[in-house]
């Protein structure tokens, strides 16, 4: 059962990434956040990162309510990853026609995926393994 829960958690975070990065990202958000140095670009990036933070908060409240603060952490991490990619793309003048753009896009997506894996590890470590009847399988949490 625990393995199924972890898989469900991973799939929920993957769905969150697709929903927030693609389905809920308007044309304005996608274009404006690429202009990382402009006021409008920062506003778009903050809205986009806020959407991700809200979804992370909702997932964490379901799976590990005491880690609610991961939603706030996700705001800053997601914004930093996206801003770094946008700055790199802008600085080098890469567009979707350049293979380097797609490398940057892929690294950006994988950085988000790895961030979610860290969240999942923190969530699983926060579970009360004794009440789950699996005290011997509890991850090393320092206590």
Task: Provide a brief overview of the structure.
This protein is mainly α and 143 residues long. Helices cover 73% and strands 0% of the residues.
Structure description:
- With 143 residues, the protein is mainly α.
- The chain has one domain (2-137).
- 73% of the residues lie in helices and 0% in strands.
- It is built from five helices and no strands.
- The protein has helices at 2-23, 27-32, 39-63, 70-92, 99-126.
- It is elongated and about 55 Å long.
- The model has no long low-confidence stretch (mean pLDDT 89).
Key structural traits:
single chain, 143 residues, mainly alpha, 73% helix, 0% strand, elongated
**Based on helices, strands and strand pairing, what is the structural class?**
mainly alpha
Summed over residues and divided by their number, the pLDDT gives a mean of: 89
In helices, the fraction of residues equals over 70%
Q: What's the number of extended β-strand segments?
A: 0
Number of domains: 1
Report the portion of residues in β strands.
Answer: under 5%
| General form | elongated
Unreliable segments of 5+ consecutive residues: none
């Amino acid at each position: 059962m625990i393995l199924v829960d972890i898989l469900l958690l991973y799939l929920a975070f993957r769905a969150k990434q697709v929903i927030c990065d693609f389905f809920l990202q308007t044309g304005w958000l996608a274009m404006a956040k690429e202009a990382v140095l402009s006021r409008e670009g920062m506003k778009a990036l903050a809205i986009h990162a806020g959407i991700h933070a809200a979804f992370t908060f909702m997932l964490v409240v379901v799976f590990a309510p005491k880690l609610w603060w991961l939603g706030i952490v996700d705001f800053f991490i997601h914004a930093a990853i996206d801003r770094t990619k946008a700055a790199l793309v802008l600085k080098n003048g890469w567009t979707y026609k350049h293979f380097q753009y797609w490398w940057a896009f892929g690294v950006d997506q994988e950085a988000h995926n790895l961030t979610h894996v860290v969240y999942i590890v923190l969530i699983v470590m926060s579970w009360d393994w004794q009440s789950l009847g699996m005290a011997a399988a509890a991850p090393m949490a320092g206590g």
